Amino acid sequence: MQSTCKFNLNAACRKPRHLNMAKSGSVALLTLLIITLVMASTALKAQAYKDATLSPYKRSVDLLSRMNTAEKIGQLATLFGWEMYQKHEGSGIIQLSDKLKSAIDSGHIGMLWGTLRADPWTQKTLENGLNPKDAITATNKIQHYAITHSRLGIPLLLAEECAHGLMAIGSTVFPTAIGQASTWDPKLIRQMATAIAKETRVLGSHIAYGPILDLARDPRWSRVEETYGEDSYLVSKMGEAFVRGLQGSGAYSQAKDSLHVISTLKHFIAYGIPSGGHNGGPAVTSNRMLFDDYLPPFKSAITKAGALSVMTAYNSIDGVPCTANEALLKDLLKNQWGFNGFVVSDLGSISGIYNSSHTAAGPTQAAAAALQAGVDSDLGGYGYGKYLDSALQKGLISMGDLDSATVRILNLKFALGLFEHPYRSVNGASLVHNKIHQQLNQQVATQSIVLLKKKLLPLSPDIKSIAVIGPNSDNTYNQLGDYTAPQDPASVTTVLEGIKALVGKNTTLRYAKGCAIRDSSSAGFTAAIDAAKASEVVVVVLGGSSARDFKTEYKSTGAAIATQNTISDMENGEGNDRSTLKLLGRQSELLAKLAATGKPIILVLINGRPVAFEKEADMAGDILEAWYPGAEGGKAIARIIFGKVSPSGRLPISIPRSVGQLPVYYSQPKGSGGHYVEGPGQPLYPFGYGLSYGSFEYSDLKVSKTENNQDVLLDVSFKVTNTSKRFASTDIQQLYITDQTSSVVTPIRHLVGFSRCYLKPGQSVTQRIKLDKTALSLWNLKGQQVVEPGNFILALSKFAGDPDALKAQVEVHTGYLLDMQPIERK
Description:
Protein name: Beta-glucosidase
Structural class: alpha/beta
Shape: globular
Strand order of the largest sheet: 11-8-7-6-5-4-1-12
CATH topology of the largest domain: TIM Barrel
Number of domains: 4
Low-confidence stretches: 1-42, 820-826
Largest sheet: 8 strands, parallel
Mean pLDDT: 91
Keywords: Glycosidase, Hydrolase
Number of strands: 29
CATH superfamily of the largest domain: Glycoside hydrolase, family 3, N-terminal domain
InterPro entries: Cellulose_Degrad_GH3, Fn3-like, GH, Glyco_hydro_3_AS, Glyco_hydro_3_C, Glyco_hydro_3_C_sf, Glyco_hydro_3_N, Glyco_hydro_3_N_sf
GO molecular function, one term: beta-glucosidase activity
CATH class of the largest domain: Alpha Beta
Organism: Arachidicoccus ginsenosidivorans
Helix content: 25-40%
CATH architecture of the largest domain: Alpha-Beta Barrel
Number of helices: 22
C-alpha cells in the first residue's frame, strides 16, 4: 500500500531513443539537466517537511508555513472513526464512507477516534465491525485516502480507547484498572501496557487513551472501575508503568515496524471527586489538595515517563471548567512541567463551556476559551471547526494561538514516522490476542483478585459436590467492564467454566443463576436453593455490571443514561452513578436464603466499585473481590479457589460499610474520622487490605537517614518471613508516613512506598524501600512544596491503619524546598 515519490537522477539523464542529437543538442540536454537538478534541489529544500533527516519539529514548522487557515484548523479536529467506513456483512468488503471523504476533502481533519471501536453506542457489532485483519485493511484505506487527498499529503493520527485493552473486536480484554491496581505490581502492568500497545499499533492506530489517573474517592461515581483507586502514590506508580509500556523506552519510534503508541492521560484534573458522585460534576477541592493529591500522578507520568498527550476533564474547579483553565493547561502543564505533547478535550467538553458550565456566551467564545487555555485538539470535531474560524475572524484568538496548537499535532505525526510509514502489514493481525497475551492476561487477573475473608479456602478439586450460583457466575459480559468491544464467547472464560475445568472427575457440579443484577424477579430462587442443599459447598457470584446492551440509551458523549425502569444488569460504567452502594436487585435476599441452608458460602464479587456489603459479608465464610477480571477472569478465580495459586491482591480503594460514611478514603486530613450513632466510622475493609494462603511476619525494621544541606534520604530495611507451613505466597509490604507536627494540616497517614516478595513456607528475605525528600514534603501556606523540620513516624504495615504495624521515628533537622534550596530553621 505504501507509495513513495523520489527524484531519480538516472531517469533524468537517460537519453530518449528516438533523438539523434548533434553537438548543440547535447549542450541543450546538458543545460536542461542542470536546470532540472537545480529545480529538484530547490524543490527539496522548499519542501523540508519531506526530509526525514530533519528533526520532527523542524519538519513541523516547515509544513505549518505551507498550510492555510482552514488546513490548520482541520488538523485540530478528532472525528468519530467508526463513521468513516462501512463493512458489508455479506461480502466483508470494506468501503470508505462519504463522511470520511468530506472530512478530508473539505474539513482537512487531523485525527480520528474510535475507528476500531465496536459497542452498542457505535452500533458496530461482531458482524459489521472490524476484526483484526479487517482493521488493518480499513486503517490502511483511510490513511491512503487522507494522504492522497490532502493538498500537502498529511497522514492522520488514529486514537483508540485502551485503558484495559484495545477496545476493538478480537483484542485482549484485561482486568479493568481497579483490578490492575489491586496487583500492586507496576512491572506487570508495564508488561500488560506493552501488549496493549502492540495490539493497537499493528492494527494501524497510534494513540492509546489511557491510563486514567483520576483518584477515586467517591465510590458512588460511575467510573471508579477505570481508575487505580484512591491513593496518589499508588496511582502514580501504576500510571508511570502504564505509560512506559505504551510508549516504550523512548517516547516514540519512527521505525516502520514500531509497536508503541502515544499515551493519553485522563482526565485533567480532579474528575474522580464529583459533587454528589455525579459524573462530570464540579470538583470541590482546594489548591493544596490539588498539588498534594490529584496532580502528582499526572506530573510523574509526564516528567518521569514522558507521556505525550493529556485529556481534559468535564468538571470545573473553583468555578473554572477544566477545558478552559489556562492556569492548569498552559501555565502549569505546558510551561512549568515542560509538557511538549498535545492536549485533547474530552468528548463535547469544549461545547460544555457554554452549554453546561455557561462560562461562555456561545460556541465561538467557548472555542476561543479552550484554545487560549491550551486545548490543542477537539475530540468529536464539533467544538472547534467553524467556531474557531469565527473566533479568529473576530479577533478572539490570534494566528499564533492556532499555530501553537497545530504544530504540536504535526510534531507527533513526524515523530511517529507516519509520513514515511503510514501503513501496516496485514501480517500484524497475528499479534492480536496471541497466546503470550492470553497468558499475561491470566497473570494480571490472578494477581488482581483480593481475598477479603478466609475460612474454608482453598478447596480440594476432589470435593464431592459444589454449587455455583449467582447472576455473575456464568455471564460473559458482566466480568469485562466498560469500554469493551463485543466478544467471541469462546474467548472469555466465566467463573462457572473456570471451576468446571478444574474440578475432579468425580465431583458433582451444579449451577443455578438464582437472580439477575437489577431485576426484581425471584423465579430462580428455588433452583438455586435446591442446588445449594444438594452440594457440599456453595460458590455465590454476585456484584454488578458495566455491560452495555443495545436497549440502553446513551448520551452524545457515549455515557449511558441510567434509569430506574431499566431491567438491564448495567449499574456501573460511565453515566451510572449511584445513590447507595448496596447490592441491587434481589442479590442480598438470594445470598441470605443460600446461607440459611447451612452450607459453607464462598462469596465472589464481580463489580466495578466498592459495594457496601457488611451484612452480606457476615453470611459468607470466604470472600473474594475480583472486580471486573477480564476475559481470563474465570480461570483466575477458579485457580485461587482450588489453591493452584495463593491470592496476592491488595485493595487500592477502601470498602465502606455504608454510603453514609463517605468520604472514607484512608489518607484524610488529621481531625477526620470518628464514630456514628449507627456504628463505626472506619471502613469495612481498609485501603491496602488483602489476605493470602500464606502468613507473614515483619521484623528488624531499620531506618538509615542521610541528611545534608541539599537533601534528606531514608533507607528503610526490614525482614519478611512466610510463617506458613504449607503455602508459598506473595506478600506486599506497605510503608506509610505521618508528619507529627506541621504548619498546615496533613494526612493522618499516606503511602510512600511498597515492595513485594514471593516466599516459600518458612522462607525469609530482607526488603528495602528507599525514600527521598518528596516523601516527607507538603505544600505550605506560600504555595511551596517543602520539607519542614520535625518528627515523622514511619509505619511498616499490611494495610492502612494496621494496628500491628512496625514503627520508627525519624527526625529531620533541616527544612528543604523541593528545588533543593534549604530553608533556614528558626
